[in-house]
Amino acid sequence: MPRITKEDLSKLVQDPSGENRADTADKISREFTTETLTDSERVLAEDIFRLMIRDAEVRVRKALAKNLAQTPLVPHDVAATLARDVDEVALPVLEFSEVLNDDDLVDIIGDNADSVEKQRAIASRSYVSEVVSATLVDIGHEDVMVDLMSNQGAEISEVSLQKVVDDFGDNERIQKPMIERNHLPITIAERMVTLVSERMRSQLISRGHIPEGIVNAVMTQSQESATIGLLGDGVEERDVELLVEHLYNNKRLTSGLILRALCMGDVSFFEAALAKRAGVSLINTRILIHDSGPFGLEAIYNKAGMPEHFFPGVRAAIEVARETSFDGEEHDKERYSRRMIERVLTQYGDLGVEFDSDDVDYLMGRMLQLPGERALHH
User: Which InterPro entries match (predicted)?
Assistant: First the structure.
């Protein structure tokens, strides 16, 4: 490729047609992206760019934008001006230029609230910060949200994700890329369980956002049942507490949910839920449940405001939890859940305690969804 010379500038002066200006812009900007220029030539090229970004011909500015979009060498003022141009000039710069900073992008979004294409380009950048994502979410164009949710390089805060669910929770175009994100906060997954289709619920499972088995609960129960099992194997204690906090703040940490979760083997959820409702530390709650004799469990249970008629089932479930552990073999979860449910139902049957029919139906239905004991041992 020829070097930039005085002849290039002379040609521009002698034949200033739009076509020639565009050709010159293309040549100089392509040469600029290489490492062949001297310092003085680079300074000269930058001065030429500052003239050309004000050129009346769109094709001149478009040639610059196409060639300068992906080079970190372009001056910030040049990149920022091109990024604020008409769409056909600005889009490659908005999508690819690393020279633009968050302040640039937020300002451009604010100044172009009706420009879906500009926002889509920004949403598709290889990296999008939380503050830029939040600005896009606040405006909330559907196509932009699809691009943003599809972009694994976009950092999106939980607050922004909650707003997306509020605004587009029933929109499959946005549900799908949300589910396919590498990380979905537990509070978002919990909300989406009851919003998405059966096909989408299967994808939630395959992506690891929800443990296997929850789909059956979702299909047979309301949001309360769907919440059970959201926390999978090896989950951090903090995630359990976050889910409990989320449910409590939204007045959905119900007694039925807590019992059902315990019967599914979610002892850590049960502990955190009682601690939250009772206003007792998690450490002390665990001591009362497991290590303080026959009255500790009942004391923390009552302090949490749990229904009296649920207590026999809770006591039976805790006994099973003490006696049974996951053995790591195939179907260990199913064996655990089946024994837990059988013991709870037997306890109520033996005592003749009235048990809400919805809860009986749920537990019986859940047990019927599990393989039989013979199958579990083969």
Answer: DUF2336, UCP035865
